Amino acid sequence: MLALFVTAVLMTSIAAVTIPAAGVLTSRSSFNDNHYTALYPGGQRICGDHICAPGEYDKMQQALTQAQMKGNTGSTTPSTPSAPSTPSAPSTPSAPSTPSAPSTPSAPSTPSASQGQNMSTMAAPTWTTKTGTVISIQDPGQGHESHQLAIILPPSDKIYTGTISFTASEPIQVVELTGPLASGDDKGQPVWTTDGKTKFALTLVDVNKASGSFAFTGNALAIHQMTNKTFTVSYAVSYTASSSSDTVKTGTLTSIQDPGQGHESHQLALVLPPSSNPYHGVLTYSASENVQLVSLIGPIDPTDNKGQPVYTMDGKTWYALVFVDPTNQMGTWQFVGNAIAVHTLHTTPFKVSYTVYAHQ
To answer: In whole angstroms, what separates CA 111 from the centre of its chain?
Structure first.
């Protein structure tokens, strides 16, 4: 037994001398068992399964933050990230938490004064839509006793504007009345009256078809036929009835010499004066002779007044000139422009009664 014990001690001593310690098999200078997934003093950043290239870690963090924010519906402001801690051993994943109920959306806030400063303060017009079927009667207008008339919107001190769709038993005309006219304004243009005292300017548009649609403005609206045979018309009309304003009005004008350079031998009746904001709307007119319709666009840059028709009064402020010649003395015109006028190529003045409904 003593011999065995001595032998074991000798063998252990030999192993301790000849076999190096396991801790020095690999030098600490050539092996690093520290792996970092966040900034750690003296360490390196690991991006997935490799060492982060310059700038790669920051991009990865930004992508993670954006992904987290997409999933965060309870807050609109990202929280400030806390300082990274020393990585600890992975913990056992906890059970997923029950998602919370979505929050109720808050009511939209009222626009601030700065948000609403470009919004129009004009009250929205009230529109009326109606349908019906009418059988014509003898026209009660003096001088129209042999004609037939179906009244759609009766005479009013309000200005009607809208659209009518119709289908009739025969081709028809559309009648728009402007007025009543002031004393002395019934000079030359067609008029309509039942008693010889209250007079309206008459705009008679020969649609010359039994079915269609028509945009109108005026103080009355009717369907008309120049025969004594009754007709039937079904219609749908959508309209607004407005009070007078600077851009919604009726009136009668006597033309003056056109002040435009090169137009001194013409006559002009200005309905809507030049404005920096363009107008758009409907004009109904009834004149003492055939007229042209003028819309000015601009002002334009003086270098642009080449090729197209232009208009100027002083040689400095220029407008592009829209010149429409319908070859009639009455009608309805849908327009857009910075000024609206009625015009002739003659030197003698003319009269024009009109209704205009415009917005800017």
So the answer is: 18
Q: Choose one of 194, 213, 242: the last residue of a domain.
A: 242
Burial 205-230 (b: 16+ CB within 10 A, else e): bebeeeeeebebbbbbbbbbbeeeee
Residue 136 belongs to domain spanning = 127-242
Q: Does 261 share its domain with 181?
A: no
User: For position 268, which CATH number holds?
Assistant: 2.60.120
Residue 338 predicted with pLDDT over 70? yes
Residue 256 CA to residue 253 CA, distance in Å, equals: 9
Which region among 51-55, 61-65, 188-192, 244-248 has the lowest average model confidence (pLDDT)? 61-65
What's the domain count of the chain? Answer: 2
d(CA 352, CA 287): 4
Same domain, 195 and 272: no
Cα dist from 319 to 243, 269, 322, 323, whole Å: 31, 17, 9, 12
Which residue, of 217, 242, 267, is where some domain finishes?
Answer: 242
3-class SS at 13?
helix
Yes or no: say if 169 and 210 are a contact pair by the CB < 8 Å rule. yes
Give me the percent of the chain exceeding a pLDDT of 90: 62
The number of residues making up the chain comes to: 360
Mean pLDDT of 196-216: 96
Q: Give Dmax (Cα) for the chain.
A: 156
106 vs 176, which has greater pLDDT? 176
More confident residue, 34 or 208: 208
**Dihedral sign computed on CA atoms, order 213, 214, 218, 220:** negative
Question: Would you place residue 205 in the very low, low, confident or very high pLDDT band (cuts 50, 70, 90)?
Answer: very high
Q: Has residue 106 been placed in a domain?
A: no
